[in-house]
Design a protein that fits this description.
The chain is an alpha/beta fold. It folds into 2 domains: 242 residues, Rossmann fold; 214 residues, Rossmann fold (3-Layer(aba) Sandwich). The protein contains 16 helices and 18 strands. It has a 6-stranded mixed β-sheet with strand order 6-7-8-3-9-10, sandwiched between helices. Strands 15-16-17-13-18 form a 5-stranded parallel β-sheet, sandwiched between helices. It has a 4-stranded antiparallel β-sheet with strand order 2-1-4-5, with helices on one face. Helix 4 crosses helix 5, helix 4 packs parallel to helix 6 and helix 13 packs across helix 14. The structure holds adenosine-5'-triphosphate and magnesium ion (MG). This is ABC transporter ATP-binding protein.
């Protein structure tokens, strides 16, 4: 049987720089193909090249066959006609896949109407069923800005798959989801792949394991290893794949030990009796929370329980419905900082990254050398500063956001899943660096994370937000 996707000698270039080099792959019906790999290695651009959505300024060469049809022979309109119907894509940033003004349910039912040619009522019915299965029954009338990151991720998934495309390209479909919801999305993806093609890009080794099938591992634009997922995860051959699999949190050093025996630190912030209502849903009530200098406090809780909202309350970005937040150290307002769950939300799209950093340096009279040393520590090339936010990878933008907040010497940093877009090696190194810097500089670090193993390794204390009525 002919493969659903066949790629021969694919190259993606920015001018003379090759971003993806001589890549070959075959995607077959019933065998999921998963791409693991380093942040910035060309995974998302590969997916965009396949579907025909490469950003301006990048060029592609080589052969792409979808269902046996050579894409080079098709007009733009013919390629677009395949979208949703033959091949569907879930982009890395769910917000980019959603209409900001349209509630969740119509976003999904519209796809059934437009692509599936269903009557409005039947489309509505199908869309509600999809949202139900993704535990989004009560989110149907919310617009994207009213959804949590994990909820938006699932709505985008429903919209991307509603067209009934036989081939699905899913770029990090489970980031920002707690383990239960992650497993739910993986099971649905796997279901679809039984009768079609599924190409998944993920940084989550557990997702690769659950999907099974085949895996390729990418680094710096090339495939460094390929094989069955089972073989790659149990006995990787290349040094890079070995390091990647070994970087899972259970193998991290225990960072909590560093705090043991140290004198009690001064308190940076305290929240007393905090409650927050959103719409008619109570997210949390009568919550007491405090955090000291140099302390790492992990915050966990299911998707939609109010972790991000609690951070916004503590930072003074959102008033609590009741209770009080007390700042207990002398510091400038800008030293209470937040790392957004969704990195593009933190960057103005029309300004180069260098200009943006430069503005911040001038505004707060910061040390320019500090930015470069933070970027080096985060393994980011200086070249990225000449680009716009949409011209760097998801993981590069996430680390640039980290460099930017650290330049401001925060006394409190609310880090909302700060490594959700990073491969396991870079995630480990970045988390270790954040914790190390917090300890060195006495910054209080409030870390939102879903992985209990990670909490165990890094957090001095742990706060779990309980379930609210389903989202
Ligand atoms: N428009 C562009 N112009 C020039 N270079 C770009 C552009 N878009 C992306 N790049 C670069 O191409 C490389 C690959 O990007 P890509 O988004 O495919 O990475 P990725 O493997 O998906 O990474 P991540 O895991 O971080 O999402 C990155 O180094 C990125 O900086
Ligand atoms: Mg990517």
């Amino acid at each position: 049987m002919a493969p659903l996707i066949e790629i021969n000698s694919l190259e993606v270039r920015a001018g003379r720089t090759a971003i993806v080099e001589k890549l070959n792959l075959k995607l077959r019906k019933g065998t999921p193909l998963t791409i693991l790999g380093e942040t910035g290695s060309g995974k998302s651009l590969l997916a965009q090249a396949i579907i025909g959505l490469l950003p301006k300024g990048l060029t592609v060469s080589g052969q792409i066959l979808i269902d046996g049809r050579d894409q080079a022979g098709l007009s733009r309109a013919q390629r677009e006609r395949q979208w949703g119907r033959d091949i569907g894509m879930l982009p890395q940033e769910p917000w980019r896949a959603l209409d900001p003004l349209m509630p969740a349910l119509p976003q999904v039912s519209e796809v059934y109407e437009l692509v599936g040619k269903m009557e409005p009522e039947a489309a509505w019915h199908r869309a509600s069923g999809d949202l139900d299965r993704l535990q989004l029954a009560n989110a149907g009338n919310k617009i994207p800005a009213q959804l949590s990151g994990g909820m938006a991720q699932r709505v985008a998934f429903a919209a991307a798959t509603a067209g009934g495309a036989r081939i699905i390209l899913a770029d990090e479909p489970t980031k920002g989801l707690d383990a239960r919801r992650r497993d739910l999305v993986v099971a649905q993806l796997k279901d679809r792949s039984a009768n079609g093609g599924l190409l998944t890009i993920t940084h989550d080794i557990e997702v690769a394991r659950q999907l099974g099938g085949d895996t390729i591992v990418m680094r710096q634009g090339v495939v460094v290893e390929r094989g069955t997922t089972e073989q790659i995860l149990s006995s990787p051959k290349s040094a890079y794949a070995r390091a990647l699999v070994a970087a899972a949190p259970q193998n991290w050093p225990d960072l909590r030990a560093a705090a043991v025996g140290q004198p009690a630190k001064r308190r940076v912030l305290a929240g007393c009796g905090l409650s927050l209502m959103r719409g008619n849903k109570k997210l949390f009530s009568n919550l007491d929370i405090n955090i000291a200098a140099g302390e790492v406090l992990a915050l966990s809780g299911d998707s939609g329980t109010g972790k991000t909202s609690l951070g916004d309350v503590l930072l003074g970005l959102l008033p609590p419905s009741s209770g009080q937040v007390l700042r207990e150290v002398e510091a400038a307002r800008y030293q209470y900082q937040k790392l957004y769950q969704d990195p593009p939300a933190a960057f103005a799209p029309q300004v180069t990254l260098g200009r943006l950093m430069e503005d911040l340096i001038c505004l707060h009279r910061l040390d320019r050398g500090r930015l470069l040393s933070l970027m080096a520590r985060l393994n980011l090339s200086k070249k990225l500063l000449g680009r716009y936010p949409h011209q760097v990878s998801g993981g590069e933008l996430q680390r640039l956001a980290i460099a930017r907040v650290l330049m401001l010497d925060p006394v409190l940093l609310f880090a909302d899943e700060p490594t959700s877009r990073l491969d396991p090696i870079t995630a480990r190194d970045t988390t270790l660096m954040l914790v190390e810097l917090a300890r060195e500089s006495g910054c209080a670090l409030l870390l939102v994370c879903h992985d209990p193993l990670l909490v165990e390794k890094v957090a001095d204390r742990h706060l779990h937000l309980g379930a609210v009525a389903e989202d």
